[in-house]
Design brief:
Blueprint lengths: L2 H10 L2 H9 L3 E4 L3 E5 L6 E6 L3 H12 L9 E7 L2 E7 L2 E2 L2 H15 L18 H10 L3 H15 L3 E3 L6 E4 L2 E4 L3 E3 L1
Antiparallel strand pairs: 1-2, 2-3, 3-5, 4-5, 6-8, 7-10, 8-9
Helix pairs in contact: 1-2, 5-6
The protein binds adenosine-5'-diphosphate and magnesium ion (MG).
The site of adenosine-5'-diphosphate has 21 residues, from strand 1, strand 2, strand 3 and strand 5.
């Protein structure tokens, strides 16, 4: 099936049912705002389809500008059709909570005490507030993480968005932690 036909589905039918029943495309997951499908041709590509999701749209724009950041999901392309947004990106695997917390501990340890973030006192990345993100942005020795933390600090400082980094919004690209959907909208 061509990408154009995938989009056409959105014109005519409920896209999810249509993709599943007509094309046998597998829905891999449903999140709170979007659906994730297996790309019909490429085993290592998934397609995220969503209509309105300001929080995700904000992050997606940042991801497209920061594709060299290793914490950012590798995106192949994006498209908009009939009010639906399509994101074609690399298929990732679930992240273990312990792996995510170890990553944070290592980053905090490398930054030193000045960062003033206590990984032992938080149970999830979701517990970090904007001031802590700002300190991580300033002091993290991992420049890619610092850039992501800067994005989170700025976004969560506004009353429009909150930190939604629970474990299902973090995935792995091999051994690398990747943030797929870090914001929620108030
Ligand atoms: N690149 C991916 N590869 C494999 N599964 C994914 C990928 N992106 C998302 N998923 C799955 O889809 C779920 C929902 O994705 P997410 O982007 O969080 O959507 P929502 O905005 O609806 O919460 C994730 O928790 C995960 O299980
Ligand atoms: Mg999500």
């Amino acid at each position: 099936m061509k990408t154009a036909e995938l989009f056409e589905a959105a014109d005519r039918y409920n896209y999810a049912d249509w993709l599943i029943s007509e094309w046998g495309i597998k829905r891999l997951a449903s999140g709170t705002q979007g659906d994730i499908f297996q790309h019909p041709h490429y085993e290592n590509i998934v397609v995220k389809v969503f209509d309105t999701d300001k929080a995700y749209a904000k992050y997606l724009a940042w991801c497209l500008d920061n594709q060299s950041n290793r914490y950012v999901p590798p995106i192949q392309s994006t498209a908009k059709k009939s009010g639906l947004n399509f994101v074609f990106f690399k298929k990732l695997t679930p992240a273990k909570h312990t792996v995510v917390m170890k990553m944070l501990k290592d980053i905090v340890k490398a930054a030193g005490e000045i960062v003033d973030v206590q990984p032992n006192e938080i149970s999830s990345l979701q517990d970090l507030w904007d001031g802590e993100w700002a300190r991580l942005a300033k002091w993290s020795k991992d420049k890619d993480f610092a850039a992501f933390a800067g994005f989170m600090a700025k976004a969560t400082r506004s009353s429009s968005f909150y930190n939604d980094l629970h474990d299902k919004n973090v995935m792995m690209d091999g051994d690398q932690v990747v943030f797929i959907d870090p914001l929620g909208q108030n």
